[in-house]
Structures are given as C-alpha cells and as structure tokens.
Amino acid sequence: MASVEYRGMNLVIPENDSEWREHFKLARGHKLMLRACKACGLMRYPPSHGCPWCAALEWEWKEVSGKGHIYSYEVVHHAIQPGFKDWTPYAIVLVELDEQRGTPTPDEALRIIGNLVTADFAPEPESKVAIGKRVRVVFQDLAGDFALPQFALTDEPPVGRVWSLPA
Amino acid sequence: MRVAHSKHASQNPKALLKERVTVQDVVGSRWICKPLHLLDCCVETDNATCIIVTSAERARDLKQKPAYVMGVAGRVNKPRTDFHWAAGPISRVAGYYAKDIVFGQAGIKPDDVDITGSYDAFTFTTMLQLEEYGFCKKGEGGQYVSSGIIELGGRRPNNTSGSHLCEGYTHGMSMVIENVRQLRGLVDDYCPGWAEGKHSYDYAPGKCRQVKDAKITMNLGWAMPPTGSALIMHN
Fold first, then answer.
1. pTM of this prediction?
2. Which of A27, B52, B163, B226 is deepest in the core (most CB within 10 A)?
3. What does CATH list as the number for A2-153?
4. Where are the domains of chain A?
C-alpha cells in the first residue's frame, strides 16, 4: 500500500492497483505515460485495462509530450477536501493533449483533468484561466516513487477561440 | 430553471423549499463551483419513493387510476461511459442516444408531450436533457427555459413538483410519481378538493399545480452525463 501525503491528505494507492500505481510512478521520472492498445494502437486515458475502442486487452505504456490546450475548466469556490480550502477559488482544467486529437472520431481526444499551477505549484489565479490557452504538463514530486502530473500555462498561441467564464 | 421549479414548489405542500426565487436571487447566490451558484444545486434530503409496475390488465382492477407506459429507454450509454469528458463533445449526454429509442417505442414526437420531468441535481442537467431529447435545439435550452414554456400555465411544464432543486432529491423518482399524479388528475396541491380531482388551475403561489388535461408525460432520467433513462406515459 503506497500512501503519500499531499496538502495534508493521504493519497492511498493499493499495491494491486496496476492502473494508477504505475502511472504515478512513471510520472516520478517526469514522463507522462498513457496506455496504448497493442491491437489498434490508440492511446487512452485513464489507464484502463481494456481498449475503449476495440476491447483488446493487450497494452503498453507510451510517452506523450504533455502539451495541449485547455478544453474546459471550472473554478472551485467551495472546497470539499480540507486540503484545498486555502486554495479557493482555484481552477480545475480539462486538458486536451496534442497527441491523438480528433481520433478515432472528430470529437474524440485524450483529455486529462488536473490543477492549473504556477512554477511553485500554487494555483494560477482565475483571471489567467481560459478555454483555448496552451498548457504543458509539470510534475510535482511527492515521494520517491510518486509524482502528480499537473498543468502550467505556456507562451504558445492559443487553440481556437479563447473563452473564459464572466468574472 | 431554478425560478420555474421554485414557482412549482410553492404549490407543493410537501416541498422542502417552497419560497419562490428570482433570477437575481440565483445569480446573486454564492459560487459553489463556477459556473454553478448555490441555487443551481439541488437540496439534499433523506426520503423514500415507491412505484408499482404491473400489467395493464391487473392495473385495471386496482383502486388507483393507472398510468400506461408508452416507451422506455433504460440505462442508455454514450460510447465510453468510463470518462464522459473523454468522448465526444462535452455537452453531449446520454439523451442524445436515448431519444430515438424512447420516442420510437411511444410513436410520438417531443411536440406531443404535455409535461416533462427531468433530473435536476443541478440546473444544467435539465437544460442539457431538454436539448438532447429535442424539446428545443442544441444550445437553445436557455431561451426555451426562460420563455416560460416550462412553467405551470406554459405549453409544456417541467418538474411540476419543484423536483430536486426545491422539493427534495430522489434520483429522479419523484418526477415519475409527479407525472403519474398529473395523468390521474390527482396532484396533491393546495386545492381543497384535489383528492377528488377538483382543481382551480390558478397557478398563483400556494394554489394549484395540476396541469389541465395532461395526456402524455415524459421523464428524462440521468445517472451521470453518459448514462440515462427515459420514460413516456399516457393516461
């Protein structure tokens, strides 16, 4: 049983959780690794056992760049975990990765949820968050075999129309 | 959505929140998770509901007037139910896939429905479902709701009991029960003779919530964005 402390909370990942344990362990090497289907080649997230498109069970880890754009977001004002109370209001972003955009159907993509953080892993202010803005993955090391993938804004030009919630 | 459902709750003696609210009350309430305000969220309650389903033949002998099932779509899923936001447009929910099943069975169109009952854990869940089932076009839910169509006295009232936002949270079951009451003409409002089916059809606060001559009702059920069920009944 791996137990890691994060913002005063215990993140517990059981030994037999073959999906998440390895994902976070690989993140400690600062690589964003997703599962790719050995039959059809498509990657998926979260790292589930079966391929969501062709149902094949054979898979392999594949590294992605961790670059993408904000597909959607929300701003938490009422934290349900005590560890995030002093963060409020903070944004949770849904990031669409560059790899595999529009595959296998035009509306499909690899989308990952994370916090939008500054260089010192504090939450970006709401005024900086917008749909379309470019981000890259950053890794917050929490233990020798555990890092949390998070996202940070980049200077790259945005994707499509930039939109944010009215203040 | 919240304003409409609060109007309906003011006609429901059993509703937890009977006070009518304004649009200003809703957008002025504190943020919970932006874009949702406090009044965009349902009330949390402990309660129980019960529905008896039997054959039409048996139902004829029972004391209560039956409501007849015209169509059912049960646990219809969007592709990739594991993580809704990974598949398709994020605003597309299960109703998009359930509508042809349930309307096909019933042999009717959205326009034939007199009353809708839609899951409203949040205001947006009902909005998305009204769009997906074709009561208005995708993206036009806001206009549909604010036009007054969904209010008592409107063309197609939605959630006439006040539902999850105001009456109490029951995973959508209370809206099925409410539609059965509507089809029977036995809505338990403030009309003194409601138990005999005598209604004033006065939709002022603290009065009537019976829809006149309701013939066909529909329930739009939501388990999560990619999974939902639907039910069409007639009297």
1. 0.93
2. B163
3. 2.40.50.840
4. 2-153
